[in-house]
Design a protein that fits this description.
Blueprint lengths: L9 E5 L5 H11 L6 E4 L14 H11 L7 E4 L5 H14 L6 E5 L5 H11 L4 E5 L5 H8 L2 H21 L9 H12 L15
Helix pairs in contact: 1-2, 3-4
């Protein structure tokens, strides 16, 4: 998204297979960008074996290991898609009585736009600032050690950006012609394991 991180009321770290999201959230916390972190996520087919206690819980453990105080972290352990990440995190924050005017939304690098579009749709009355680990695509593939997984996830994320605005799950985003062409090329080459059918239950 090209956002410059700045101090926000709270950060939401979106659960996934990538512990780098937790590391980036911790780095932002150390830089004074937020006083409170919410890690959100249950498990998925990608994380069931890697993170058996749930994505949010593994993120929390990582953050504590890196020095974040326990009382600066909230855990939302139920969300199974991006829409639920936002809705359940909002409910948890509001239940704790935390005043929120802005949210630092931390995700995998290629999920920034999808996460932002979903958050803007589902919690429109706060300001959203997107953040992720700064790295090239090849560096990211090296960090995950599974190129097929990364490209399948990239194609799945792009498909959602194309489908979900019409279904009310996220705001509309302009898709450049070269991105649309790359999506079609990768789709034709079989990178489709993270595709969704029309009419999914969430983002």
């Amino acid at each position: 998204m090209g956002h410059e991180p700045r101090p926000c009321s709270v950060a939401i770290g979106l659960g996934s297979h990538d512990l780098g999201v937790a590391d980036t959230t911790v780095d932002l916390y150390r830089r004074g960008m937020m006083p409170l972190i919410v890690f959100t996520g249950a498990t998925s087919r990608t994380t069931r074996e890697r993170m058996p206690r749930g994505e949010a819980e593994h993120y929390r453990e990582r953050a504590i290991e890196l020095g974040v105080p326990v009382d600066a972290i909230l855990v939302e352990p139920r969300a199974r898609n991006t829409g639920e990440n936002i809705l359940f995190s909002r409910a948890l924050i509001e239940d704790r009585g935390v005043p929120v005017s802005s949210v630092l939304l931390v995700s995998k690098p290629y999920e920034e736009r999808r996460a932002y579009a979903t958050a803007r749709k589902l919690w429109p009355d706060v300001e959203w600032v997107s953040a992720s680990t700064s790295m090239t695509l090849s560096e990211y593939v090296d960090s995950i050690q599974d190129a097929r997984l990364v490209f399948d996830m990239l194609v799945g994320a792009q498909q959602r950006l194309m489908l979900y605005p019409r279904q009310g799950f996220m705001i509309e985003q302009a898709i450049p012609d070269d991105v649309a062409a790359a999506f079609e090329r990768l789709h034709s080459d079989g990178f489709t394991s993270r595709h969704v059918q029309a009419g999914p239950a969430g983002a």
